[in-house]
């Protein structure tokens, strides 16, 4: 069903050249990106040079790598040697990375070609991709709607058919929620499965890089290149990389047990979303899985815990952006102290400032134990609860988001409502579990609805198999297919 194997076959048969495909994608971005604002930069010279080198190597009899010639969009918080990386923030305006992140380096080694940077919420803080110095990202299904965030540019680029694959990062739902809003597949691997080296840090104990694709098998294919141990990342897990794409097809899900949290199917979930997930559960049953509902009483606590731990880590991680070492600087300041203060004041947007202030408060003397220390204890309880749940279930299923994509501007002045967009995704990050969102229907206005499937630690293969079986049974059609470029 996916497009990557079609590209692979076309390149192998010499029906399509890597340079030809790369130029076609760059032309398409130039023509159509203004409609969604998904890409903020194109690596034209680098991409074409890489494509030419691949064509030459293949002409000389080299083995065809798994990602040969396949264009990929890279979220604007992953470093690529010599290219701009700004995290969609004024404070990093004009900053070029001196090195390449491990994740991007690994996909490049596998033949994938980064073609540009994708838009995002500033420093990955947001659920709508409206907090960006480059402007908001529009949802390809309906330009008046948000794309979700923080990886909204990556999700929209795939949904608009500009590229077949993109990379995003997920700290509290930033891959899965925009995947849900834009009707694409988004996967957050187990924490430690993919190296974070070269990913500009938001919350180091929660961040994880993962792929977006229109089809599950395409996500599986690039995931193989992303995974692997990295000595440059102290949290990287030394585990062998499984051939996810080769083991996708399963005859049925017979014997698989799916748990459904009652709290994420309650009246707080939009009726269309709740109905679509109910239909998705029936489809899983038709594939042989058993469905069981259970009480997950930590949903509210997990949300509160996340908004203590994540801002605390933000306060620490973003202290390095002071105008001294790199990035933008207020050169009109009269003293070092004034320069640092005004650089940060002018460089950071409102949402980033909000989280820095909150994080600094919960880490301050007299409040650390009451807030941060207690939050870490609740986080341990969340992880233990999941460990017990996976003794009874193979997967946990819920809506990815409580609503479909909302109108631009609708929640900009209501941070609490914005934060609630991630109520179903945040507990997964606290526990470091793998999870993915895939399309399961449309609401009454025609906006996509995402189904979230969560697996046990390092159970990506099983997650991909279940989502692939569902995808084949449902035959969901993307609004804009990348195949039009081929």
CATH architecture: Alpha-Beta Complex
Q: Give the H and E element order.
A: HHEHEHEEEHEHEEHEHEHHHHEHHEEH
Strand content: 5-15%
Assign the CATH topology: Amidase signature (AS) enzymes
Number of strands: 13
Characterize the largest beta sheet: strand count, sense, and whether it forms a barrel: 11 strands, mixed
Strand arrangement across the biggest beta sheet: 1-3-2-6-8-7-12-13-11-9-10
CATH class: Alpha Beta
Radius of gyration: 21 Å
- Overall mean pLDDT score? 95
Number of helices: 15
Fourth-tier CATH superfamily name: Amidase signature (AS) domain
Q: What is the domain total for the residues?
A: 1
Cα separation of the termini? 15 Å
Global shape: globular
In which range does the helix fraction lie? 25-40%
Extract low-pLDDT stretches: none
How would you classify the helix and strand content by structural class? alpha/beta
């Amino acid at each position: 069903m996916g497009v990557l194997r079609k590209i692979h076959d076309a390149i192998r048969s010499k029906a399509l050249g890597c340079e030809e495909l790369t130029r076609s994608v760059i032309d398409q971005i130039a023509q159509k990106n203004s409609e969604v604002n998904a890409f903020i930069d194109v690596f034209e010279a680098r991409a074409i040079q890489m494509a030419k080198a691949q064509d030459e190597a293949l002409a000389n009899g080299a083995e065809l790598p798994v990602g040969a010639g396949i264009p990929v969009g890279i979220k604007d918080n992953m470093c690529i040697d010599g290219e701009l990386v700004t995290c969609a923030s004024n404070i990093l305006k004009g900053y070029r990375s001196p090195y390449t992140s491990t994740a991007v380096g690994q996909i490049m080694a596998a033949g994938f070609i980064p073609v540009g940077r994708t838009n995002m919420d500033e420093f990955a803080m947001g659920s709508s991709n409206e907090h960006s110095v480059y402007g908001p990202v529009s949802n390809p299904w309906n330009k008046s709607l948000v794309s979700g965030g923080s990886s909204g540019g990556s999700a929209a680029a795939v949904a608009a058919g500009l590229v077949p694959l993109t990379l995003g990062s997920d700290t509290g739902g930033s891959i899965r929620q925009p995947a849900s809003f834009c009707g694409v597949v988004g996967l957050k691997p187990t924490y430690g499965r993919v190296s974070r080296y070269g990913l500009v840090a938001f919350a180091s104990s929660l961040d994880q890089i993962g792929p977006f694709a229109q089809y599950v098998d395409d996500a599986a294919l690039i995931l193989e290149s992303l995974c692997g141990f990295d000595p440059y990342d102290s949290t990287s897990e030394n585990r062998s990389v499984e051939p996810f794409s080769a083991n996708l097809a399963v005859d049925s899900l017979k014997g698989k047990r799916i748990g459904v949290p009652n709290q994420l199917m309650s009246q707080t979930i939009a009726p269309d979303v709740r109905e679509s997930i109910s239909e998705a559960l029936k489809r899983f049953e038709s594939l042989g899985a058993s469905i069981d509902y259970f009480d997950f009483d930590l949903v509210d606590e997990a949300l509160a815990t996340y908004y203590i731990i994540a801002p605390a880590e933000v306060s620490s991680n973003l202290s390095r952006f002071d105008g001294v070492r790199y990035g933008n600087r207020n050169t009109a300041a009269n003293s070092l102290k004034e320069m640092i203060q005004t650089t940060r004041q002018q460089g950071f947007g409102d949402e980033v400032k909000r989280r820095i202030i909150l994080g600094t408060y919960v880490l301050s003397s007299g409040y650390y134990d009451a807030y941060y220390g207690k939050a870490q204890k609740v986080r341990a309880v969340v992880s233990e609860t999941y460990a017990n749940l996976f003794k009874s279930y193979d997967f946990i299923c819920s809506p990815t988001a409580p609503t479909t994509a909302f109108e631009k501007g609708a929640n900009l002045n209501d941070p609490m409502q914005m934060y609630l967009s991630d109520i179903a995704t945040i507990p997964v990050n606290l526990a470091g579990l793998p999870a993915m969102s895939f399309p399961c229907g449309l609401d009454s206005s025609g906006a996509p609805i995402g189904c979230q499937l969560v697996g046990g630690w390092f159970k990506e293969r099983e997650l991909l198999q279940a989502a692939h079986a569902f995808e084949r049974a449902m035959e969901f059609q993307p609004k804009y297919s990348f195949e039009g470029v081929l």
